[in-house]
Amino acid sequence: MNHRIIDASDVVIRFAGDSGDGMQLTGTLFADASALFGNEISTFPDYPAEIRAPQGTVSGVSGFQVHFGTDGIHTPGDYCDVLVAMNPAALKANAKWAKPTATIILDIDSFDTAGIEKAGFKTDNPVTELKLDDRNVICAPITSLTKESLKDSGLDNKAILRSKNMFTLGMCFFMFNRPLEYTYTYLEKKFGKKKPEMVETNKKVLFDGYNYASNIQAIANTYSVAPAHYEKGTYRNINGNQATAWGLIAAAEKSGLQLFCGSYPITPATAILEELALHKNLNVKTMQAEDEIAGICTAIGAAYGGALAVTTTSGPGLSLKSEALGLAMITELPLVVVDVQRGGPSTGIPTKTEQTDLAQALYGRNGECPVAVVAAHSPSNCFDAAFNAAKLALEHMMPVILLTEGFLGNGSEPWKIPSMKDYPAICPPIIDECEGKFKPFERDPQTLVRKWAVPGKAGLEHRVGGLEKNPAGVISSDAENHAFMVAQRAAKVAAAASCIPNLKVEGAPSGELLVVGWGGTYGHISSAVKQLQDSGESVSYAHFDYINPLPQNTAEVLSGYRKILVCELNSGQFADYLRARLPQFKYSQYNKVQGQPFIVEELVQAAKAMLGAKE
């Protein structure tokens, strides 16, 4: 059989197996190798929602999707060119994501009668039952070959079986002409000091997988994906949670303040706390609190003491933090609350992504309690979003909620490491002395921002707390004073609009249809709109990174289009918010609440339906 190397502009691979099959690591190593090779990448880890689902069942399947290419990679891809399924359950759960032209690699050793029955198949032939006979299905005895590869390694059977993901990775490296050296370097760094015996065993099984793929006739063609055309700089692969942590550290450096994070672990936000805890050398202090309320209250205390204060959480935790968030608002202390959204309500689907916390972020507190809300739109953008959220909080003396999503927090992409000299200074309104008695709630006449007096400074003694006060800081239940202070706090948040960027439009400034999005839907909507524009449709795109306050030119942008389509991963929360704030416009919606990101094609079809609809 003649071997061909086919040039491809982009490829999507989906690795799937049981939670113990190492698919997350396999996908990560493939993504890292592609990033180091120079490709653009976007990844999507898809974890099972159950902590310990029964082995071999569909509910226990763990997946990791990698989209890599030469240019224009903004999403993890809709459907995969290659599906790796380590057992029957993985095949059943993921067959729907395989393209009609896909190659499917199966560990045929796991497709025994017990495995097929546990996965819920009705026949003894899963490939035929799923109507996959027309795909290029490679039935490889991966488990048996891994055992053979490591039979003289001295490892026990359990350790050997854990290595079959490396055999699979070697096969995929051959298919896509990925160099093995990047992974060899990873293994040396990972195990070189503590478990040196694991270095050579993993290298061997990785190479044997590569060699096996190069010798079987089933893989007739391999693929070459050229490096991307990046602007000059130093790049690394980064996920959203790590980028969020680093953005907060950068903000602390630019403000000259210590960073404090008080948080309680919760999926999928825990990694931010873990990452911050690694950087004590950068003047970062972290505390794992006993619950969500303690987490935010310690952060408020740190803010009162003069630190850049942060607390991290997900939807259920944001609910618990709501009362204390009101305390931060009425005391007008700077605080960043990071909410990595997940499927709800209640415990919901903890490992799946959604955008269903927006209404809670905007309104979920007692009393008149407006809070600034910003949102990140990609894994690498989480760095800038965190930096900007901290800048808003510190310079405007107010809590800011930063919304990210499980899709962003766990997903990754290449990130050009920035120079801190390119980022603006952060100038908190810290006061060291004053003439006469200090009045903590006296404000700057333009920004309405109060001064920040750190405890311990003579002449700046004052009280803060949850009870209403007058501008002098004296507790007051006077009706007119309460109305005045409520209006002042709301006006301060609204005034921050002058400090945020204008809303940008991808496409013509006027036309038939404007597609609107926010948060982590950016890559999918942008890709869909670009596809429509390339086909000649009158479609533009506006993406909101700032939600409260809205950019100052929002009404001007919306007025340029006959139709507006708001796309979000909820039942219409941002659309309802726009209706309340800008009721002069008519909004249509496209919503998805399935714990999964959008598919580009479904957005294309939704926009086409809008373009063809009669008013």
Average pLDDT for all residues: 95
- The structural domain count equals 3
Give the name of the CATH superfamily of the largest domain: Pyruvate-ferredoxin oxidoreductase, PFOR, domain III
- Share in helix: 25-40%
DSSP summary: helix tally: 21
SSE order and pairing:
Elements: E1 4-7, E2 10-18, H1 23-37, E3 40-46, E4 61-69, E5 80-85, H2 88-94, E6 98-107, H3 113-118, H4 126-129, E7 136-140, H5 142-149, H6 157-161, H7 164-175, H8 181-191, H9 196-215, E8 221-224, E9 235-239, H10 240-255, E10 259-263, H11 270-277, E11 284-288, H12 292-304, E12 308-313, H13 315-331, E13 335-341, H14 358-363, E14 372-375, H15 381-396, E15 399-405, H16 406-410, E16 412-416, H17 479-495, E17 505-506, E18 511-518, H18 522-534, E19 539-544, E20 546-548, H19 554-558, E21 561-568, H20 573-581, E22 588-591, H21 600-612
